[in-house]
């Protein structure tokens, strides 16, 4: 009789989305870990990038300080697994990453004014690494968004919403559309071609 109840309970739970919750929750955790991994990769590039720019453009203190402070704000947020269950903490994390993206964009734009910096091999390598990382961040974020979307649909849909209430599953926060538009654009710099010398009169 006990075995029959276990089998019956298993069938009921699987039919009400319980197994789907387990699968989608694991997908969210995995995709979130990849988002954090790529954000950390970006953060690790910043000190070398700032130091390289400082070597050629030390007078750009406001921009350099802006990047350093934005990185510090990101680092001050504890990106624990619980973060994805707290809408306020998630929004704070998202805002900090957005500010860092903007600060990095300004730094790369400043580099346009320093031909020697633009021609520095170390700077070009760091810039390429940064742009590649920004692209990987976008891919990782999109995977996370899709995983959360699938999970949240299950939380809200009948009859799986009853299972959600029974086991305490709730809607998880995701990246906002406004923030997605900003961050999905990797910071790029169009290097202008050198101007031709004016003909001698």
Write the layout of secondary structure elements.
Layout: H1 2-15, H2 18-56, H3 61-76, H4 87-111, H5 115-118, H6 121-156, H7 160-167, H8 177-183
Helix pairs in contact: 2-3, 2-6, 3-4
Quaternary structure type: single chain
Shape: elongated
Highest-level CATH class: Mainly Alpha
**Average pLDDT across residues?**
82
- CATH 4th-level superfamily: LemA-like domain
Strands, total number? 0
In terms of DSSP E residues, the strand content is under 5%
Q: Report the biggest beta sheet as strand number plus sense, adding barrel if it closes.
A: none
| Number of DSSP helical runs | 8
User: What is the straight-line distance between the termini?
Assistant: 105 Å
Structural summary, described in words:
74% of the residues lie in helices and 0% in strands. The protein is an all-alpha fold. The protein has a single domain (18-183), classed as LemA-like domain (de novo design (two linked rop proteins)).
């Amino acid at each position: 009789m006990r075995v029959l109840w276990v089998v019956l309970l298993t069938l009921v739970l699987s039919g009400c989305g319980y197994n789907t919750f387990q699968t989608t929750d694991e997908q969210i955790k995995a995709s979130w870990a990849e988002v954090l991994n790529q954000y950390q990769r970006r953060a690790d590039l910043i000190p070398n990038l700032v130091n390289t720019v400082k070597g050629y453009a030390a007078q750009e203190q406001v921009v350099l300080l802006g990047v350093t402070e934005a990185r510090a704000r990101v680092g001050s947020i504890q990106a624990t697994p619980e973060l994805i269950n707290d809408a306020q903490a998630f929004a704070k994390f998202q805002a900090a990453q957005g500010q860092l993206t903007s600060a990095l964009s300004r730094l790369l734009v400043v580099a346009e004014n320093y031909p020697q910096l633009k021609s520095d091999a170390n700077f070009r390598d760091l810039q390429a690494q940064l742009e590649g990382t920004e692209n990987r961040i976008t891919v990782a974020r999109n995977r996370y968004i899709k995983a959360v979307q699938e999970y949240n649909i299950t939380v809200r849909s009948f009859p799986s919403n009853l299972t959600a209430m029974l086991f305490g599953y709730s809607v998880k926060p995701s990246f906002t559309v406004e923030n997605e538009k900003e961050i999905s654009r990797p910071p790029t710099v169009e290097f202008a071609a050198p101007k031709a010398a004016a003909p001698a009169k």
